[in-house]
């Protein structure tokens, strides 16, 4: 993770340096550091959200002016610790492909018990694309902006989870192989920009983001008690039901940055 952050910092410095020599002010570069609060939802009543995550995004951005006070925005971000926690009221095997630390979590018809809690901690590489509208700059060097719509193409680079049962807690389990690698978010944001000089500005704002796709691959199953269980058959304890719910991800992001 430190290595990735160092690479991003180097790219930001290069972009910032290049912008000092840009003669065409229709193109502006910048960087941003953005705390975020994320949450998960499910369309399955037996999979209950139980709290979100607090994370951060860091990255670079570019504004391409196409009309007075209007611009296309492009960028790339590395988003850390997105996700949240689910309670699975009926247990089963929800992580069949993951590389878990204890084989008991994937062994048998119902390795994860009823009421198991799984908190997902996800890292994404984001490529946002949007349209920004600004007010005219007044005597206070302050102006407001609205960015809408914003579409973010996200690629999962790391997937971890904490798995909690009544008897044990397994932290930082590698669940990447049971997570969807690609997601697309739609969103919008608003804020203000303060001009430090003719070319340099500070900006801040708040964004809402909502993912279109399921964040899990749904290749596991839920284990339901078999009402017709044969007491003489040890393999007749449960009925396996494919876990095909949709788990969606949402964010509120506080964006702070600088444009050159």
How would you describe this protein?
This protein is mostly beta strands and 260 residues long. The chain is built from 1 helix and 12 strands, in the order αββββββββββββ. An 8-stranded antiparallel β-barrel has the order 1-2-3-5-6-8-9-12. A 3-stranded antiparallel β-sheet has the order 4-10-11, with no helix packed on it. Mean pLDDT is 89; it is low at 4-24. The longest helix is centred in the first third of the chain and has 19 residues, at 2-20.
Compact description:
By secondary structure, this protein is mainly β.
Features:
59% strand, 3-stranded antiparallel β-sheet, 1 helix, 12 strands, 260 residues, mainly beta, 7% helix
Helix content: under 10%
Number of strands: 12
Uncertain residue ranges: 4-24
Fraction in beta strands: over 45%
SS summary, helix count: 1
Layout of strands and helices, then pairs:
Layout: H1 2-20, E1 27-42, E2 47-67, E3 70-88, E4 92-93, E5 116-134, E6 142-164, E7 169-174, E8 182-195, E9 201-211, E10 221-225, E11 238-242, E12 247-259
